[in-house]
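So, can you check this record?

>
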Amino acid sequence: MSDLFDAIVRRRSIYSLDDKVELSEPQIMELINHAVKHCPSAFNSQTARISVLFNIHHHAFWELTLKELQKVTPKERFPATKQKIAGFAAARGTILFFEDQEPVRNLQKSFPLYKESFPVWSEQSNAMLQYAAWCLLADNDIGASLQHYSPLIDNAVRKEWKIPEDWKLIAQMPFGRITEEAAPKDFLPLENRVKIFS
C-alpha cells in the first residue's frame, strides 16, 4: 500500500507535543506548501490562505488566545484552560487556516445559480487542506491537533499579524514532536457506515 494509506492511520489528534522536531523550518514549510498548492477547491478558486507561526509568533498566538479565553471562561475552570493552552504553546509551531472571502463573493456573482453553495464549498476545500497538511505532518513523525477558537480570537489575530479583512479564520493547528501517543480509539462497524451497490 501507499504511504498515504499509512499516513491516514497515523494522523491522530495529538495533544502531548514539544518543540524538538527533527525537520527544519524549510522542510516543514515544504510539506505545508505542497498541501496548499495541490489541494482541490471549487472551480479551482484556490481560496485557502494560511499563516504559519514559528518561535515568538507561535508563543504570542497562544498567549493571545489565553488572554481572550480568560475573558469568557469561568474563574474556577480557567486553570484547566490555562493548562490546555500551555500544551499547545509547548509545540513547535501553529498553522492558522483561513478562507479568503473575496474570491468566494466573486464566484457568487459570476455563478448565481450556485450562490448559496460557494461558502460551503469554500469551507469544504479548507477542510481538505487541513487534512492533507495533517497527514503530511503525521507521515513525517510530527503530531498535531485541530483547534477552533474562532470567532473569539479573530480580531486580535487580525490586528497582531495584519491579516487581511477578507481572510476568515477557520482553524488552528499546533504541531510538534510527539511526546505521548494518542490513546486507541473505537470504530463503529463499517457495515453501518458504508453501503455498497454493485
